Amino acid sequence: MTTRVLTAVVPVWLNRSEHVRAHTACHASALLWNRAVSWVRAEWSSGCSPGPEDIRRYVISLPPESRPLHAHTAAAVAYDLAEAIATARAGRANGMSGTRFPWREKAYRPLMLSARSGWRITPGGDLALSLGRGRERIVIPVPEFTDRAGQSVEPDRWGEMKLCWDSAERRWSLHITHRVPDDRLVQALSRHDQAAGMRVVTVAVDEGVINSMTLASRAPDGAYEIAVINGRSARSIKRERNKRYAHLQSKLSRCRTGSRRHRRLTRARKKLTARTRRQLKNFNHQVTARANRFVREQVEAHRQAAPEGTRVVAHLVVGDVRGIERDTAKKRRASPSTRQQLSQWERGVQERQLAYKTGLRIKHISEAYSSQSCPFCLTRRKVRGRTTPA
């Protein structure tokens, strides 16, 4: 049986001493990142171009006092830096203005813990997180979580994990990778991939602010199945957050930094941010879960209606509105209220979650002139009026 790797975010509690050790290790991870960035830039200045393994060898070669971490955790810092450099190069190659190579000094980074060496289950049944040879481990109760089927995920299915600190929530969490049965849909190469013995199910998605997703697909009988997912609750959440955030920021601007009132208002702002983040996370999950259910229902309907032996594959297309929020103020393309809604749009998060849940790659299609084109024959005609003669 094939499997796929998913990640579960599980909150954990650390006592005082473990909290201090974890914070110290996260600071050390950030300092190691800063040192690696400085070394890479020095190599670039001398005409060299170090690769991922070169960065890893440099990080591992540092003395233990310069990298007070597990060797695999230090190697993960090097690979993260190499990936960030590759992402910046890809962005520049695609013409994205403002793309920079890693340069900012960090004060905090999560800890990556590899399987079977970065973490292990103790004989007493606890979870031990290693900080390197000769250093005291972080020992916590084994976290419990379930998969999509509601079954408990045992530690023998876990892979690498990441210990993260959420500054808004003020708590620690473990991001645990684990294996589950592969339930991804079969990906079509294109919507025209209609080979013998194959049926392609195309699902079109139109994204919006008021209606988060509108999905359409042709049923086996030729009719169109439509699903409209409302997004007004997210607009309400963001509007309340923006109003309260502006109110707190106005009060903070009249306080002396570090004063008792300033600290109290800062805590209130972080609490507001954390609560809104939880609400939007739940909203995005509900939207993408419903969209995922619609896609799977359409694929299953075609699978039942198709002749025996026919392979049913899926194709997911989305209207390309990427970058609609860029330069809105400079180009005066929208009012301040609309610009704020565009900049806070959860479109990208929802696309990634939908691709994650269905297992399909999203194909973006340009929406240019779609309002002027007939949806049936695709003839383009710029309509001057919508009034129908009697």
Walkthrough of the structure:
It is a single chain. The chain is of the alpha+beta class. It folds into 2 domains: 179 residues, no CATH class; 113 residues, Nucleotidyltransferase, domain 5, CATH 3.30.420. 39% of the residues lie in helices and 22% in strands. The protein is built from 8 helices and 12 strands. The strands form 3 sheets. It has a 5-stranded mixed β-sheet, with helices on one face. Helix 2 packs antiparallel against helix 3 and helix 5 crosses helix 8. The longest helix is centred in the last third of the chain and has 46 residues. The mean pLDDT is 91. It comes from Streptomyces finlayi. This is Transposase.
Features of this protein?
single chain, alpha+beta, Nucleotidyltransferase, domain 5, 8 helices, 22% strand
Integer count of domains:
2
Distance between the termini: 63 Å
What structural class do helix, strand and pairing data support? alpha+beta
If helices are DSSP runs of H or I spanning 4 or more residues, what is the number of helices? 8
Mean pLDDT: 91
What share of residues are in beta strands? 15-25%
- The strands making up the biggest β-sheet line up spatially as 10-9-8-11-12
Residue stretches low in confidence (pLDDT < 50, at least 5 long) are: none
Number of DSSP strand runs: 12
Order of helices and strands: EHHHEEEEEEEEEHHEHHHE
- What is the 3D shape? globular
Relative helix content: 25-40%
Radius of gyration: 25 Å
The main sheet comes to:
5 strands, mixed
Helices and strands in order, then pairings?
Elements: E1 3-12, H1 16-45, H2 52-61, H3 71-93, E2 111-113, E3 119-121, E4 126-129, E5 138-141, E6 158-166, E7 171-181, E8 198-207, E9 211-218, E10 224-230, H4 232-252, H5 260-305, E11 311-320, H6 328-331, H7 336-343, H8 347-358, E12 362-366
Parallel strand pairs: 8-11, 11-12
Antiparallel strand pairs: 1-7, 2-6, 3-4, 4-5, 6-7, 8-9, 9-10
Helix pairs in contact: 1-3, 2-3, 4-5, 5-8
